[in-house]
């Protein structure tokens, strides 16, 4: 077994300092994803910097990164102010994992693409010149239908909700803290860059905050899995509508598990604004959501799934 040193940080600032000093060190929160990477022998860290003692205060619309998915899923205030986020947390993984996994870890987790996770395969994220999932004969049933240079499907179910709610993350580094919209937490895939986030080594998510608005309060999260237990979503959707005087004042449609990063359907949103909510408008918005999809050989079914999920989600938030 690979040997490493273990450190316990008392604050995010101390953890960031320890990581900055050690280029091969990894942060450990709950460790749900980290332990998988270790077991799969994808990483061999020099040090692990534990965050389990680091706690920050919570408040209305302020969610510490160490908040577990189970806590989010059981939060009655969140169910009122931001139901899509509460539902996304309650739907994630299994009860055992929800009791351990955290908000920060869910946002920063690595792709579950088998070509990334399998060290015997070539992978664009791990430095290959091509994406193995997009090669002829590849197994790509669970991959993106909006692929770029990488066809991995983004695994976080909390990220689409937070993006729909214009949430902002507080990020800590050795240079202090900064605020970053969750929408800017993710960037286009780059060759050799493992993480889907834009965070540099040593930067840590401390908390996420959102302001309750008509959009967050009238929001819904829907997903479809092959199996209800444990599976990651084949596709997920967060829809939110702000309806005033019978017309849509603002709309959000953000999709998960269909692109390398959370996918916002801005064209579909634009179709709804200024219109009366109706079945015709919902179908048009759903069609616009998948209009630019370029599915791979084995995942054309995800186009239909996503379109139907968008229709259902819009119906729910219009009721």
Describe this structure in words.
The chain has 319 residues and is of the alpha+beta class. Among the domains are: 1-51, Uridine Diphospho-n-acetylenolpyruvylglucosamine Reductase, domain 2; 214-318, Enolase-like, domain 1, CATH 3.30.390. 31% of the residues lie in helices and 19% in strands. Helix 11 runs antiparallel to helix 12 (279-289) and helix 12 runs antiparallel to helix 13 (301-318). The radius of gyration is 19 Å and the shape is globular.
CATH superfamily of the domain at 214-318: CO dehydrogenase flavoprotein, C-terminal domain
Given the structure, what is the number of helices? 13
What's the CATH topology label of the domain at 214-318?
Answer: Enolase-like, domain 1
- Form type: globular
Helix content range: 25-40%
User: Got a strand count?
Assistant: 11
Segments where pLDDT lies below 50 for 5+ residues? none
Mean pLDDT over the full residue set: 96
Strand line-up of the largest beta sheet: 4-7-5-6
Percent strand equals 15-25%
Largest sheet, strands/sense/barrel: 4 strands, antiparallel
N-to-C CA distance: 56 Å
Instruction: Return the structural class.
Output: alpha+beta
Radius of gyration from CA coordinates: 19 Å
Q: What pattern of helices and strands is seen along the backbone?
A: EHEHEEHHHHHHHEEEHEEEEHHH
Quickly name the level 1 CATH class of the domain at 214-318: Alpha Beta
